Amino acid sequence: MENNSFIVRLATPDDDIYAQQISEETERSAIARGSGISKRPVNSIIEKIHGGKAVVAVSDNGQWAGFSYIEEWEDGKFVSNSGLIVSPEYRQLGVAAAIKEEIFRLSREKYPDAQIFSITSGLAIMKLNTRLGFEPVTYSEITTDEHFWEGCKSCVNHNILEGKCRCNCLCTAMLFNPSKN
Predict the structure, then answer these.
(1) Which end of the chain has fewer CB atoms at under 10 Å, N or C?
(2) Radius of gyration of the chain measured on its C-alpha atoms
(3) Which residue, 73, 25, 17, is CA-closest to 49?
(4) Percent of the chain with pLDDT strictly greater than 70
């Protein structure tokens, strides 16, 4: 997918060179926004890239512009669209929308029967999800896999999540159910 000054595509092992930047920007972004973005370790990002479960946006001159990945839960019953991050230089240029569309396409291609979920505190992502057919749901409608919830431990709002017995938090859970679309 091309759009002006960037390309969004399936990430390949050649994109490992961006993993450190992606990890650092994710953490910086969470701190700057005071939001619940979970940390993404470099080795986890590389694992997603090598597993064919990530998309990357790269500028025409080879700079990293954005990233997102998918993860399978409960033997393919659920797939999460996660880790969407855009480099500050490429924000407000449509990179996030292009990545979101591509990661959603990849999710549907790899897991056509899975329910796809996304958890976010950002209005822009909620709007993108809505355009793709996601609907807001309670946390009880997404995965119960403990490993997924472990990822929330690095979030600044983890105490809220646990205090509410994982029923809700400051993030909104959104679900795409292929049987409804």
Answers:
(1) C
(2) 15
(3) 17
(4) 94
- What gap in Å lies between CA 164 and CA 33, rounded to an integer? 23
Q: Quick one: tokens of 160?
A: 């809220």
Handedness of CA 11, 15, 18, 20 (dihedral sign): positive
Rounded to an integer, what distance in angstroms lies between the CA atom of residue 6 and that of residue 47? 23
The sign of the dihedral angle between the CA atoms of 134, 27, 64, 20 is negative
Of 158 and 69, the structure prediction assigns the larger pLDDT to 69
Alpha-carbon distance of 121 to 98, in angstroms, equals 19
What tens digit of pLDDT does each residue of 114-150 get? 999 999 888 889 999 999 999 999 999 999 898 888 8
Q: How do beta strands 135-137 and 78-86 pair?
A: unpaired
